[in-house]
Amino acid sequence: MGHNHFAGQEDPHAPHGGPHGYDTASQRRHAIADCQVLIAGGMGMVAFDSMKSYNIEPVVTDVKNIEEAVKLYLQGKLPNLLERLH
Q1: Other beta carbons within 10 Å of 66
Q2: What pLDDT score was predicted for residue 86?
Q3: Which of 18, 24, 58, 78 could covalently link to 51 via disulfide, CB atoms 3.0 to 4.6 Å apart?
Q4: How far does the chain reach from its first CA to its final CA, in angstroms?
Q5: pTM for this model (two decimals)
Q6: What is the rounded CA–CA span in Å between residue 46 and residue 31?
Q7: Which of 30, 28, 25, 29 shows the shortest CA–CA distance to 12?
Q8: Per-residue confidence (pLDDT) for residue 27, from 0 to 100
Q9: Rounded to an integer, what distance in angstroms lies between the CA atom of residue 21 and that of residue 39?
Q10: What are the φ and ψ backbone dihedral angles of 43, each rounded to 5 degrees?
Q11: Distance from C-alpha of 35 to C-alpha of 70, rounded to nearest angstrom
C-alpha cells in the first residue's frame, strides 16, 4: 500500500481526526527547508500544500530529464501540470 491508500482516511494522530498527512509531524516531513523550488513528476496534494506553506515553489511536470527540466524552469518555460497532483 502506498500514500494514496491512506490519503482519504482520517488520521488518528491528526488534530480532531483530520485527513492523513495534515498532522504536524507529516508537515515537517514534507518540508525541504533549504530549497526554493521542488521539481517533481508527481506528488500528493498534501505535500504540494506543505511545500507552498514553507514558501517552496512546487512544480509538477512531465519532463523526465532533470537537466532539461531545470533549464526550462530557469527560462520560465517548465509546465506546472497541476492535474498530476493526487
Answers
A1: 9
A2: 87
A3: 58
A4: 15
A5: 0.65
A6: 11
A7: 25
A8: 57
A9: 20
A10: -170, 165
A11: 14
CB 27 within 8 A of CB 19: no
- pLDDT value for 77: 98
Q: Cα separation of 65 and 9, whole Å?
A: 34
Here the cell at position 66 is 532533470
- For residue 34, the model assigns a pLDDT of 79
> For each of the chain's 86 residues, which pLDDT tens digit applies?
345 544 555 555 555 555 656 666 665 665 577 789 999 999 999 889 988 988 999 999 999 999 999 999 999 999 999 999 98
* Domain range list for the chain: 3-84
CB within 8 Å of 17: residues ≥ 6 apart: 10, 11
- The span from the CA of 28 to the CA of 82, in Å, is 22
**DSSP 3-state of 41:** coil
